[in-house]
Structures are given as structure tokens and as C-alpha cells.
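Worked problem 6 (solution included).
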Amino acid sequence: MSNFAYSEPPRPPETLLRYANAEEIGSIAQVWYEGLKDEPGSPWADYLTKWTPITATKWFLDFQKRLGARFLVAEIEKTVVGMNGILIEKRSGIGRLFTGVVVRSAERRRGIGSMLLNRGLHDIKAQGLNKAEVETRDGITASKYLYPKYGGQKHTVQS
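Solution. The predicted structure is:
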């Protein structure tokens, strides 16, 4: 990331990027759940049998409280349509995109994922970190198209 020099992608005029407050975690978890559920080919189907928007809310709140997680959101007309959960790990020098970049299916292919990833990477770099990581599934839209646009490299990990 020391050479991260990507310009900001075009932003639809009605889209606002901001960090969420604690009261919004439930709606963010709903966007995360719906975004994963609607992924073409349903690669997350088995994973989501263990998760609901309620359990995701608890997970997000725990990460926010214990680890200082922040949630970058994309908002259109006061409705959250995309999100990116970010952990800043100063000791390791790594910014973790622990939720991945998730956008509601109805809002995809409008550049919202690129906006969320670009801003998240800029914010990670601004914290003095030189590396970002996201753990995802092979074959999902973001791992095929979005992350490689920003220098993402594939490392296979057995689960």
C-alpha cells in the first residue's frame, strides 16, 4: 500500500460515504447479510445457515467494542446500500477488511463497491499501515473483479 495511488472512482451524485454510528449496526448487518445472500451462484449459502442479521449485529458490535472496528457505509437517500467493515491493527501493520465490501444487489454495478474499497484503503494508509487484507470466497464478484482492480492478490487458504 505504500505505493497506493488510485484516484477516487466516479461517485454517483446521490451517494454519500461516511462512517456509521453504533445505532446503525443492525441496518448495516442487514445489508451485509442480504448482500451475501444475493451473491450470484450462492457461494455463501452454507455460511449463512450459521448467520442471521441478528447474529451479525452481535458480531459487529463485539468487534466494534473489543477491537475498535469501524464501518464505512455508502448511503443513498438516507438508506445504507453498501458497507465495508475495517479493523486497524497497528501492531501488525495490517488493515483488515473483515466483512469484505458488500453492496445490496439492487445497487450493484454503479461503482459503489469501488468507492467503498478505495476510501477504505485510503483510510488504512492514512493510519500509517502498509498492507490491507480481506478474506473471501473464491469466485464471488468482489474477488473476481473488485479486489484485483486495486492490486488484490489471491492467496488460497484451506478451511
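Discussion: Residues 18-149 form a domain with the Aminopeptidase fold (CATH 3.40.630.30).
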